[in-house]
Specification:
It contains eight helices and seven strands, in the order βαβαβαβαβααβααβ. With about 240 residues, the chain is an alpha/beta fold. α1 packs across α8, α3 runs parallel beside α4 and α4 packs parallel to α6.
């Protein structure tokens, strides 16, 4: 049986990924930082449906905490076949108003955390000559967003990181890809008013915003054997907002 570790899995895209991987027969490790109740509730739901699932807490911006998280999952399930780096934070703010600490926190949570998790899982994957990593980027990492310079920079870093790591780990049988969501209705949209949401829908060729399930389906595809010859790619799931 295959095991997936999903960071930031207590809600939103991460929770949708957890449910989809469970339906595919995976053992699921649900990472959370502060949302313990939601993580435990999701874990209970998956177990009730016959899935083997556990929760694990860690601050993904802390290298030692991420290493301990990976070791715990490996102890519980024996191995990690798929890593989904989903944990992240958003920040809408003028560049000139962005503090040094806000810049550092945004990059630590959205980019450094990906490095820490990949570094922790890579040795065992290399030894087995098998594994798959899917990193959640953003369309803003591809084209940039006004008032989201730190976030855009971090997600652009995720894309470059994924491409480079795919080249390095490919000879060891490990695939690395990124999913680049467009505007998705999650907690990160809490600061947008109805008019802003309506305007974003109008700008999107498919005339609707994405759901966490839209992103989850792309992640599960990239982790599957159907994507066995795909690595180093950015899969945009954005309704055509950027083409």
């Amino acid at each position: 049986m295959r095991t997936v570790l999903i960071t930031g899995a207590s809600r939103g895209i991460g929770a949708a990924c957890a449910r989809d991987f469970a339906r595919e027969g995976y053992r699921v490790a649900i990472h959370y930082n502060k949302s313990e109740k939601k993580a435990l509730a999701l874990c209970d739901d998956l177990i009730a449906c016959g899935c083997e699932a556990i929760t694990v807490q860690a601050d993904v911006s802390d290298s030692a905490a991420v290493t301990a998280m990976v070791r715990y999952v490996e102890e519980q399930f024996g191995k990690i076949d798929v890593l989904v780096n989903n944990a992240g934070i958003a920040m809408q703010k003028l560049f000139t108003d962005t503090s040094d600490s806000e810049w550092d926190t945004t990059l630590a949570t959205n980019l450094s955390a990906v490095f820490y998790a990949c570094k922790a899982v890579a040795p065992a994957m290399i030894r087995r000559h098998s594994g798959c990593i899917v990193n959640i980027a953003s369309m803003w990492g591809e084209v940039g967003a006004s008032c989201e310079v730190a976030y855009s920079a971090a997600k652009a870093g995720v894309i470059g990181f994924s491409k480079a790591l795919a080249k390095e780990l490919g000879p060891s049988g490990i695939r690395v890809n990124s999913v680049s969501p467009g505007v998705v209705m999650t907690d990160m949209m809490a600061g947008f008013c109805e008019e802003d949401v309506a305007a974003l829908k109008e700008e999107t060729p498919l005339c609707k915003l994405g759901s966490p399930e839209d992103i989850a389906r792309a992640v599960v595809f990239l982790a599957s054997e159907n994507a066995g010859y795909i690595t180093g790619q950015i899969l945009g799931v954005n309704g055509g907002l950027i083409i």
